[in-house]
Amino acid sequence: MKRMGMIFRAKANKALDRAEDPRETLDYSYQKQLELLQKVRRGVADVATSRKRLELQLNQLQGQSAKLEDQGRKALALGREDLAREALSRRASLQQQVSDLEVQHQTLQGEEEKLTLAAQRLQAKVDAFRTKKETIKATYTAAQAQTRIAESFSGISEEMSDVGLAIQRAEDKTAQLQARAGAIDELLASGALDDRSGLGSKDDIQAELDRLSGGSDVELELQRMKAELAGGPSAQQQAIEGGAQGGAQQSPQTQHRFDKQ
């Protein structure tokens, strides 16, 4: 079961990888950062509003405190010490409230400054992320386009490779046929194969003439060589004359053939 679960998670992860678009993920992250920045800004606004309310309360209490102090002076001037004491007692109570509100005001002011600084830093990070996001998206789009172009060229290359193989096969077959034709011509010329077409065959008269001519030449050359070996010019001359006479003599059958011609 564990193995099946692992296989399922692996396949699901692979499917998610294929379905995921990094540009959409970056836009989603940027949107979340904007939402967080908006929350921080609302927090700053809330703290600032609370600080402003405290300032209004402080101003109001300080006004009441000043009024009670003035009333105490007037009562004391009129000889009403009891009224002056009451006014000063109320002023003292207001002063305690003013002190408490001033502490709260300082605390809120400090929080407001911290949140404002955090909002500024977060704004800078969001701006930097936005710039980086757009750069990554542009790079990814360019890489995707390059990949598609490369894949297209790859398909064209495969087709051109098939064409090249077809041309190579045609050239190989042509060369094979040329070599076969040349070999046949050589065999026909050497007599190893009979030319049954009759175009290259010799008649019997020409064959007999070639045989006699070749034989007389051999005999003549043989007699000449014998005469040279004998060392006598008369012998050499005799050999030449004898060869000529031998070449002139022909068999009765050959003479009969020529008579018919």
UniProtKB/TrEMBL annotation:
The keyword Metal-binding does not apply. Signal peptide: none annotated. Keywords: Coiled coil. Residues 229-261 are annotated as: Disordered. Residues 44-139 form a coiled coil. The keyword Coiled coil applies. It comes from the Bacteria. InterPro entries: PspA_VIPP1 (IPR007157). Residues 235-255 have a biased composition (Low complexity). Belongs to the PspA/Vipp/IM30 family. This is Phage-shock protein. It comes from Streptomyces roseus.
